[in-house]
Specification:
The chain is an alpha+beta fold and 225 residues long. Helix content is 57%, strand content 7%. It is built from eight helices and four strands. A four-stranded mixed β-sheet has the order 2-1-3-4, covered by helices on one side. The radius of gyration is 17 Å and the shape is globular. The mean pLDDT is 97. The structure holds glutathione (GSH). The site of glutathione (GSH) has 11 residues, from helix 1 and helix 2.
Amino acid sequence: MIKLHGFSASNYYNVPKLALLEKGIAFDEVVSYTGVGPKYKPEYLDKSPLGKVPALETTEGFVSESRAILEYIERAYPQHSLLPATPFGIAKVQEFSQFIELYFELVARRLILNLLAGTEPDSVVLNEVENSLNKAVVALARLSTFEQFAYGDQFTLADIAAILNLPIVRSVGKKFLGKDPLSEVPGLDAYCMRMEERPHVKKIRADAANDYPNFMAHLKALYGI
Ligand SMILES: N[C@@H](CCC(=O)N[C@@H](CS)C(=O)NCC(=O)O)C(=O)O
């Protein structure tokens, strides 16, 4: 059986985890936190060269990088496809997913350490994050109306990208920018609430909440934060 290495409080780990759940593929979970190095799981670097979470263990070997893992899962297990049927539809889903990751997740992530450690961000970084998020918010409304799904009329990888990567943007916005920038995107709040009703999304959230104290204890033990 395939094994997913990582931890449930990680949004990146949850990307392939939600895909596997939605597709009905059996898998085992192997807990591995971040901070791999001499003091913690040095052998994990053989699974994921930068020590990042997630990594997927297959019968042929390990695959790291959530995007590559999704590609493997879709091709190895075509049932309950999470991609549209046409090349154009597939490209649009990938476009949306990449947009969310590059212009929202990776931008908000610049403040994740401040969020976790409860420290004040550097004002230059904060300003850059705010400007980038404001631009991305305007652009997101051009990519999707969020009337039903993020793209098209079926649940796809675009929804997985949105559901799992946008909460960090809301958290960073509320904590450091004095507002939730995403609530300015027409239809997005209602869409997110609908997605939270999906049974597998509820499981992802419950697993994340259960794992959070363990993840924080791990960070404290390893880095003292
Ligand atoms: N590009 C990677 C990013 C994964 C990532 O950044 N994961 C975080 C956990 S949410 C991590 O492992 N961080 C530890 C580190 O960057 O050293 C992917 O898509 O899988």
